[in-house]
Amino acid sequence: MLPEEVLKTAAGEMTCYGQTGMSVMEMSHRSKDYQAIIDRASELFYELMDIPSNYKVLFLQGGASTQFAMIPLNLYSEKKKADFVITGQWAKKAYQEAKRYGNARIVASSDDKTFSYIPKLTKDMFDPDADYVHITLNNTIYGTKYNQLPDVGDVPLVADISSCILSEKLDVSKFGLLYAGAQKNIGPAGLTVVIIREDLIGKALDITPTMLNYQTHADNGSMYNTPPTYSIYICKLVLEWLKGIGGVEAIEKINREKAAVLYDYLDASAMFKGTVVKEDRSLMNVPFITGNDDLNAKFIKEATENGFVNLKGHRTVGGMRASIYNAMPAEGVEALVAFMKKFENENK
Ligand SMILES: Cc1ncc(COP(=O)(O)O)c(C=O)c1O
Q1: Catalytic residue among 56, 92, 145, 184
Q2: Of 84, 110, 151, 267, whose CB has the highest number of CB atoms within 10 Å?
Q3: pLDDT tens sequence across 42-73
């Protein structure tokens, strides 16, 4: 979802942005008007996420999946060593890509229980000599998230925050690099945001293609080539909306309340059950089951008929999953729970 306010503003500005006489889509990315849009989007990231000044915010393309390759290409030193925690499909893909270029190592995995928990991690499990440690902070498909960051010593911590960016407070200074595809909490697909500590820029392996080198984008203000201009513009509107409602602190409070409504019901229900261990539950993705495939299918069908869409769990895990990203209002979650209660009563 995107905030309705954002969609309405975009609709109002669709054919003419400000005094420019044209749509943002039609602007030259080198124009003064467009520069003001990308500058504002960047400024708002620093402000909303409290990003220290020794970090760069880059607006890139290729999705979070391109970062799976870009990170090892840029962060591997001659040692080419990185540690991975496997908490789902996306973490596994990041690992597999890094393995193509060097010695990616699995430190821990929750594969044994269908990724329904975050492995317990202690400092001694990590290689102090690694170039970086990679984690997936929120696991979109399985509905887990790290409620505590691993202690990795001085090794740069890299996190995929695609499905939790701007959903709750995050201490950016604890990370070497953060990355996110825009399509969950910050705008339309086509934009990827990378937040990188400056000392990690400029050491890419020789084989790194120019477009996959962070330095290329850092040196050119994310304008080495044409950036995804319209997606960045919508991102700016989303960030303005978020600032308007009180920033990350305010949305975190709303997100916690929203998630609690759903988890409290799942904990009390005799029919529906959450699939994730309590201490690792995500605020954004809530997977649940009935324990009966036919009943799951009936629920999804009736929910869809009643306007609750996209509730089918990921094809690899089945069941149901409610994604309650930033733009989902509390009323949406309350309406879903009311519908689940009704369904439970009717199907006892
Ligand atoms: C945590 C996570 N990482 C990576 C991806 C892949 O993102 P993209 O489609 O932008 O490559 C997704 C997509 O859902 C995701 O949820």
Answers
A1: 184
A2: 84
A3: 999 999 999 999 999 999 999 999 999 999 99
